[in-house]
Amino acid sequence: MLKIRLLSDADETDLSVLLVSTFGQANELMLVRALRQAQRTALELVAVGEDGLVGYICLSRLDAPEGWLALAPVCVRNEDQRKGIGSQLVTYALDQARQRHFAAVVVVGDKNFYSRHGFVFQGPAQLTSPYPSEFTGLFPIRPDTAKAQLTLVYPEPFDTV
After folding, report:
1. Structure confidence at residue 150 (pLDDT)
2. Rounded to whole angstroms, how far apart are CA atoms 86 and 116?
3. Which of 95, 137, 141, 157 fits a 20 to 30 Å CA distance from 117?
4. Rounded to whole angstroms, how far apart are CA atoms 125 and 147?
5. Is the predicted pLDDT of residue 1 greater than 90, yes or no?
6. What is the mean pLDDT of residues 134-151?
7. Per-residue model confidence (pLDDT) at position 124
8. CB burial string 69-81: b at 16+ within 10 A, e below
9. Would you state the pLDDT for residue 160?
10. Which of helix, strand or coil describes residue 74?
């Protein structure tokens, strides 16, 4: 049985192993640590299965616009991929962002995967981003964000990934 919950201090070692083994490098682990140190994380969730930590997702605060979040990173343990765990994490995290009254969430990633969760790619919003526009998706929470014309400013730790 899968349980999604807030990350706890007791998860740190397992999370480090999960991030490095899933991505095959330490960049995402370093990103998460730097976001925490900069106090830019808004929400960190883990998926826990019968044999421990199987997934992780982070929502971090953009520097601008205020109230907007970036979804990154998200990962599922290699042997547990293609079981819907990533989708459950994304759905739960977006619901939490909505309940916490954030304005919008952006993601840089696979259009096919994230559009199933309500992200709009190359839609009516005109977002200037340091990342390629064709991979930048918007999940509008407040109605006015769906057609926003603005520049996304990511926290400094994203510069190192």
Report:
1. 95
2. 12
3. 157
4. 4
5. no
6. 95
7. 87
8. bbbbbbbbbeebe
9. 80
10. strand
Q: What is the dihedral of CA 151, 153, 159, 161, to 10 degrees?
A: -80
**Is pLDDT at 123 greater than 90 in this prediction?**
no
What DSSP letter does each residue of 111-152 carry, written as one string?
HHHHHTTT-EESSS-EEE-SS-GGGEEEEESSGGGGG-EEE-
Residues 27/73, Cβ–Cβ less than 8 Å = no
Whether cis (ω within 30° of 0) applies to the bond prior to 140 is no
Cα separation, 50 vs 54, in Å, equals: 9
pLDDT at 161 over 90: no
pTM here is: 0.94
Q: What is the CA radius of gyration of the chain?
A: 15
- Count how many residues are written for the chain: 161
Unique residue bearing structure tokens 């971090």: 60
- The DSSP symbol for 153 reads B
Cα–Cα distance, 73 to 98 (Å, whole number): 19
Q: Up-side HSE of residue 49: CA atoms within 13 Å toward CB?
A: 16
Contact between residue 70 and residue 14 where contact means Cβ atoms under 8 Å apart: no
Contact 116, 90 (CB under 8 A): no
Residue type, 46: V
Which residue type occupies 20? V
